Automatic annotation (TrEMBL):
Occurrences of domain EAL (ranges): 1-250
Protein known as: EAL domain-containing protein
Domain of life: Bacteria
Shown residues within the full chain: 513 to 762 of 768
């Protein structure tokens, strides 16, 4: 397939980059970190969404090399940020099948000098569709290194509450679909409420994704959500603009 060949070139020729979207802590009233979001500027087709090319990378195995580049680049960028801002990195379930993942992360931390506590790995629920024991062992290993683990897009995928019991996530990210409807449907509000309460009882933080307006923010604050992310605060921004953004706090 043409996209596979182009994607190989992209990695070799520096067409991949990371944008960063701020995450705002409601308890600290400050930006607590940023999520790295992969971007591909194709020489002829322009910007291609990760929604299109990540599946191709996964089908072809290229996700391993691309994922390694993302981890290194995210750590390198985070070292240029002030204070203790964290960087959150999306990691594909297929990267967890690679037993070398922990070594790749340890190398990226050592190479950049980023403390492990400033790195957060985001995984989706689909990670538990594979071999659960191996996955849990890898997650425990990473967490023992001091890296934080967040469960991404929570509530949309293969949800099983037993995984919340078996693995101590640091954070649950509440899927955008519930946040969008929080003031529109009683069921969305009830689900957000339940996730926030459950997370708190389990000692986990919550981030509401896709917050786009003040009414959603007010309701999330009221419900005791720990942090928010979304266009209301900021769209994903270019790496060069991060320091300006985070030092110009409201
Ligand atoms: O930023 P955007 O809304 O276009 O991202 C779309 C999707 O691509 C999201 O689900 C996001 O998790 C995923 N994504 C973005 N960057 C990465 C990455 O570096 N690795 C993986 N595996 N997924 C990513
Ligand atoms: O699946 P994941 O949560 O990693 O995906 C993050 C994606 O959500 C990114 O592609 C980002 O551009 C997008 N996103 C972030 N904030 C908002 C928002 O407020 N509204 C919408 N519609 N998309 C958002
Ligand atoms: Mn994410
Ligand atoms: Na998400």
């Amino acid at each position: 397939r043409q996209m596979e060949l182009d994607l190989r070139d992209a990695l070799a020729n520096g067409q991949l980059s990371l944008d960063f979207q701020p995450i705002y802590s409601l308890s600290n009233d400050a930006i607590s970190g940023l999520e790295a979001l992969l971007r591909w500027r194709h020489p002829e087709q322009g910007l291609i969404s990760p929604v299109e090319f990540i599946p191709v990378a996964e089908d072809t195995g290229l996700i391993q090399q691309i994922g390694e580049w993302v981890i290194h680049e995210a750590c390198r960028q985070a070292m240029t940020w002030p204070g203790t801002l964290r960087v959150a990195v999306n990691v594909s379930p297929l990267q967890f099948r690679n037993t070398g993942l922990a070594d790749i992360i340890v190398q990226a931390l050592a190479h950049s000098g980023l403390p492990p506590s400033r790195l957060e790995i985001e995984i989706t629920e689909s990670i538990f569709l594979g071999s659960t024991e191996t996955t849990l062992a890898m997650l425990h290993h990473l967490r023992a290194l001091g890296i934080r683990i967040a469960l991404d897009d929570f509530g949309t995928g293969y949800s099983s509450l037993s995984y919340l019991r078996r693995f101590p996530f640091d954070k649950i990210k509440i899927d955008r679909s519930f946040v969008t409807d929080i003031n529109l449907t009683q069921s969305a509000a009830a689900i957000v409420h339940a996730i926030v309460d459950l997370a708190r009882a389990l000692g986990m933080e919550t981030t509401a994704e896709g917050v786009e307006d003040e009414a959603q923010l007010a309701e999330l604050r009221h419900q005791g959500c720990s942090s928010i992310q979304g266009f209301l605060l900021s769209r994903p921004i270019h790496a060069d603009d991060v320091v300006t953004m985070v030092t110009r706090q409201p």
